[in-house]
Design brief:
- The chain is mostly helical and 367 residues long.
- Helix content is 47%, strand content 7%.
- The chain is built from 16 helices and six strands.
- It has helices at 2-30, 51-60, 67-76, 95-104, 123-133, 138-145, 148-157, 192-207, 211-216, 221-234, 242-254, 262-268, 274-281, 318-325, 350-359, 361-364, and strands spanning 41-44, 86-89, 113-116, 182-185, 334-337, 344-347.
- Strands 1-2 form a two-stranded antiparallel sheet. It has a two-stranded antiparallel ribbon with strand order 3-4. A two-stranded antiparallel ribbon has the order 5-6.
- Strand 5 (334-337) and strand 6 form a beta hairpin.
- 29% of the residues are buried.
Length: 367
């Protein structure tokens, strides 16, 4: 009897282990192959292609992790039919998004264009991208971004767009409100408003699930997006540190300190790439005016104590927004990054910060 009981226990353990392994496998295969790679990959599904063939095509393009999982998933969840047409997919799309795209299909259009807007870029970068890929000029984009009649339409439509964006100190009133991603449009004749409308609608999709937390926050939604944009710029490639960085800035605000963020100085001076600016304009020696008088410049000791800039300084990712809505609870008031590795260090006192800054001098130079 004891022998049978031991066998039963072993079988239960094996079954439990198998279930856990299957669960892990399932979750892994649902993830995007590379969430940071938004490069568009052409995929052509021919008429009459089988599920197996489609899975093989997607795996060959490195858009899914396993063609076998694709076959099993489509059968288990009765997926389909999958439309035969031409697609532009990316490795940043998760498994379910790819499935939904193939189920929806599209009307293939030779004139269709795609516009990719990266996280952390300014309205100037957005204007450049639009002017280079559509029949709109750089000036058209900047004009619409500050068009008060259009702004009022958006305020009436979206809960998260308020009169805060009508502040005269803002360089671009829609800065930070258009969500960075890859978007598809019918052709180059697309208008700036059509481009912005789709990007703002996507921002709504990001913010709506966070609405309750945002409304409970001590910060307004405009301030949250402003903080998120600074966090985004301070940690462009690493989500790991963002909640701590948000905590540092909020602690400094509570203590009536200036934020001391270099990226706000760059934005105030309309410098989109500090290293390039220093190399080209200053011969490699840091000549940036950190005392430049601007409400965006949080390096100023006078007039900027305990203050955020008047508005966002660039596009923001979902993760940066979440870090501003739900920051870490710390006593940190300083941080410093190794600009080569991205590793970020946090400090509660100035002396420790200075020691680390000295240690990183050879890596970070004047930045």
């Amino acid at each position: 009897m004891k022998k049978f009981r031991n066998i039963a226990i072993i079988l239960l353990v094996l079954i439990a282990s198998a279930i856990i392994a299957l669960g892990i496998c399932y979750k892994v295969n649902l993830r995007a192959v590379d969430k940071n790679d938004t490069t568009l990959i052409e995929v052509v599904i021919e008429e009459g292609s089988s599920i197996k063939k489609i899975g093989e095509i997607l795996k060959e393009k490195d858009l899914i992790r396993s063609s076998t999982f694709f076959n099993i998933y489509t059968k288990l969840f009765n997926v389909g039919p999958l439309k035969a047409t031409r697609y532009e997919l990316s490795k940043s799309m998760d498994f379910e998004t790819i499935i939904e795209t193939l189920e929806k299909g599209n009307s293939y259009n030779d004139s269709q264009i795609s516009l990719t807007f990266k996280e952390g870029i300014s309205m100037r970068d957005i204007a450049n991208t639009i002017s280079e890929n559509t029949n709109n000029s750089y000036e058209d984009v900047i004009k619409i971004s500050n068009d008060l009649e259009y702004i009022d339409e958006l305020i009436d439509k979206y809960w998260f767009i308020t009169d805060d964006i009508k502040n005269d100190d803002l360089y671009y009133k829609l800065e930070g409100y258009i969500f960075p991603d890859t978007y598809f449009y019918k052709n180059k004749d697309v208008t700036v408003k059509e481009i912005f409308n789709k990007m703002i609608e996507e921002m709504a999709n990001i913010l709506n699930p966070l609405k309750d937390d945002i409304l409970k926050s001590d910060l307004s939604v405009h301030e949250i997006l402003t903080l998120a944009s600074i966090v985004q710029k301070e940690s462009p490639n690493n989500n790991e540190y963002r909640k701590n960085i948000a905590s540092v800035f909020l602690n400094r605000i509570d203590r009536k300190m200036n934020l001391g963020s270099d990226v706000t100085t760059y934005y105030a001076l309309k410098i989109d790439n500090a290293k390039k600016y220093i190399d080209e304009k200053c011969g490699g020696k840091n000549c940036i005016d950190y005392n430049y008088k601007s409400p965006y410049n949080t390096r100023l000791s006078s007039g900027m104590s305990g203050k955020l800039p008047p508005g966002p300084i660039g596009t923001v990712s979902k993760e940066a927004i979440e870090s501003a809505v739900n920051p870490s609870k710390t006593d940190y008031i300083y941080f410093l990054a190794n600009i080569k590795t991205g590793e970020t260090f946090f400090f509660e006192n100035y002396n420790d910060f200075l020691k680390k800054k000295s240690n990183l001098q050879s890596v970070n130079g004047g930045l």
